[in-house]
Amino acid sequence: MTTTLDIRRPRPHVAEVWLNRPEVRNAFNDGVIAELAATFLALAEEPDLRAVVLAGYGKAFCAGADLNWMRAMADYDWAQNKADAQALADMLWVIHRCPVPVIGRIHGDCYAGGVGLAAVCDVVVAVEGVNFCLSEARLGLLPATIGPYVVRAMGERAAQRWFVTAERFSAAEAHRIGFVHELCPAAEIDARVQALVDALVANGPAAVKACKQLVQDLAGQPITAALREDTARRIADIRGSAEGKEGVSSFLQKRPPAWI
Predict the structure, then answer these.
(1) What is the pTM of this model?
(2) Domain count within the chain
(3) How would you write the chain as a 3-class SS string?
């Protein structure tokens, strides 16, 4: 049973994972990392799942590392530090590789490891006025395990600044650089997230998973003959699938598809 997360099932095919440590601004520790990894591994095995919302209770989405955890790490040797960091890296990978889209609901400030959590979400909605910060350099550290996802999500040029300065930047700036997809007033965030969930659930379940995988496989790749052949194979496969045939038939017949 999870103690640091609240797992909710608001409707069929949808899961919500809520960070539930508001007293410490939903900061990470080894327990949170283990529970997030276990939760998303379990969700990945659910064949009927179509969307996951990642959210947090309290004033902040996630403030990074828990202070008590950081105090304990001060006494770790190299091997312990490596094992600890590897657990975080593995947890981020598990969320990144979740077969269905993950929507990040960023209702409050998002710092350090919290920025990493936002970066592994496929779609991010943030409240106007929220602050982001890659604060590691201020502590003499660096955002290493979250780095691959953050650089992909905001781009190399933006990361060059925010990694090295450790400045706070606004949700509006995060939106401008493409890290955040949608900005909204606090009162509207649930409606915006719900609209995204509705869009996902209306689409072909296998197609959505294939689309997510396609983006991950294509990102940064040169357009070679092998890549062109691979993309042709993928569309041929899905056109011939039961879902692909049903989707085209329902469109031509002007009726809802069977998965709705």
Answers:
(1) 0.94
(2) 2
(3) CCCCEEEEEEECCEEEEEECCHHHCCCECHHHHHHHHHHHHHHHCCCCCCEEEEEECCCEEECCECHHHHHHHCCCCHHHHHHHHHHHHHHHHHHHCCCCCEEEEECCEEECHHHHHHHCCCEEEEECCCEEECCHHHHCCCCCCCHHHHHHHHCHHHHHHHHHHCCEEEHHHHHHCCCCCEEECHHHHHHHHHHHHHHHHHCCHHHHHHHHHHHHHHCCCCCCHHHHHHHHHHHHHHHCCHHHHHHHHHHHCCCCCCCC
- Judge whether 260 lies within some domain: no
List, for residues 131-188, the tens digit of each pLDDT value: 999 999 999 999 999 999 999 999 999 999 999 999 999 999 999 999 999 999 999 9
Between strands 51-56 and 5-11, the pairing is unpaired
In Å, what is the CA distance from 53 to each residue of 67, 78, 150, 165? 26, 35, 19, 30
Q: Which domain holds residue 143?
A: 5-200
